[in-house]
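tmp note - cytokinin dehydrogenase
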Amino acid sequence: MVSYNFPSQIHLLMITILVIITTLFTPITTNTSSLPWNILSNDNFARKLTTASSSVESAATDFGHITKIFPSAVLNPSSVQDITDLIKLSFDSQSSFPLAARGHGHSHRGQAAANDGVVVNMRSMVNRDRGIKVSRTGLYADVDSAWLWIEVLNKTLELGLTPVSWTDYLHLTVGGTLSNGGISGQTFRYGPQISNVLEMDVITGKGEIATCSKDMNSDLFYAALGGLGQFGIITRARIKLELAPKNAKWLRFLYTDFSEFTRDQERLISETNGLHFLEGSVMLDHGPPDNWRSTYYPPSEHMRIVSMVKQHRVIYCLEVVKYYDETSQHSVNEEMEELSDSLNYERGFVYEKDVTYMDFLNRVRTGELKLKSKGQWDVPHPWLNLFVPKSQISRFEYGVFKGIILRNNITTGPLLVYPMNRNKWNDRMSTVLPEEDVFYAVGFLRSASFDNWDDYEKENMEVLKFCEDANMRVIQYLPYYASQEGWVGHFGTRWNIFLERKYRYDPRMILSPGQNIFP
Ligand code: FAD
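out:
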């Protein structure tokens, strides 16, 4: 049971006066009316709960730069107890207030926001001296959920170990990606990040902390994995590790024929061929050349690639990686040569790089820094991420890539398309998946401007409508719906399980209101 001390009357009066004075002289952009009267003067929170406009303002926005949702206050917790106390305070209040864990705020649609509630800034929990404990014998790391994956990687590499499943970009928190899924080119082989967690500590919406795993409180464990922050705040995760490789052999193959491209992708993810990573992307004959003229390709090749894109208007890039170290360098070269021979790409359009393991995993950071230097990172990101069943991917390509996208001629930013195996996921987890054994992740990772992001949003709607009209059973990943009706459709037959779990773990509907599931 959690208990917190109420201050004495005099103490309370003094703090209240202090808060009033501070309030009068601090520009505040929000109202705190939905918070219980005693929260700002509560001893437990006095120094950690802020209504300063800079904190509130930064908690109101996210990577998407599409929404601005103001909390009443931001909690900067320094311990798990701080978070437990806050949830308990809300749960026990006559009129509870909403609260949301905010990892690194890399959501794109206000998912980590708490309108008129409290945003819990999880990053304030990071303590460099503790917070990650690696077990060499157990091959796992116990990680505080506020750590970024890049920080986890740096720590585990010190001991020659590494997690096995990644996102493309590593400056995301462990808690944030486990609340969604965490996918990338490793997913076909290792499963998403949520399939590589052994145990977690979770504070439920009742303010109760529980350790959970597949054998202990297993329903909470699976509910919280991909649970969109709805069932509890994850404070610790035990993550599987393996011996870290040193290097990555990184190949790209260009295709003009979509069916050859997908046939090769599907064959490669079904075989035991030792590949550690497989993704794919679409290159379009519009948008700024930077879109695809990535630093990956040698400059001498740019013109040749440009003319192929111009000639076909849409081409495809298969990307594969095999890790290796000094002892396996020779064999990895031979294996990759054999693999190349077996693929049906456009002959002459194969590219190869040898990079360190770290440089490969952290590859998106270079792009981020480049965009930041040009002021193009903190712009609206009307992203759309979908899971498309394998049986529908050709129709999708014809109707969306070659139809809507070419016709509208506005898409910019990476456009990813790669398959994964459903048997690497677990149906008890909360993430919703297509029914088929193989499905594709399709990501429209758009960068827009503050003037035109709406056009992209319209295009997203057009894509979703096309899929719905064609009954393609496409499912949103990192989902966003404006109404509960949308969510009911998203979960389909799993809606009742999701609802039951919500009543079990967060009956007062306190947590992660920014997902807009329980308005
Ligand atoms: P936030 O945006 O802060 O939070 C996301 C949600 O999780 C919110 O609802 C929040 O309340 C909840 N939450 C946060 N922390 C916790 C916690 N500890 N316990 C419970 N709930 C919590 N995703 C992929 O799968 N693969 C990718 O390759 C990938 N690449 C990306 C690249 C970029 C540049 C960006 C911006 C995002 C990318 N994402 C990718 C999406 C990313 O995984 C999600 O947006 C993720 O939620 C962001 O993590 P965050 O730590 O910033 O979480």
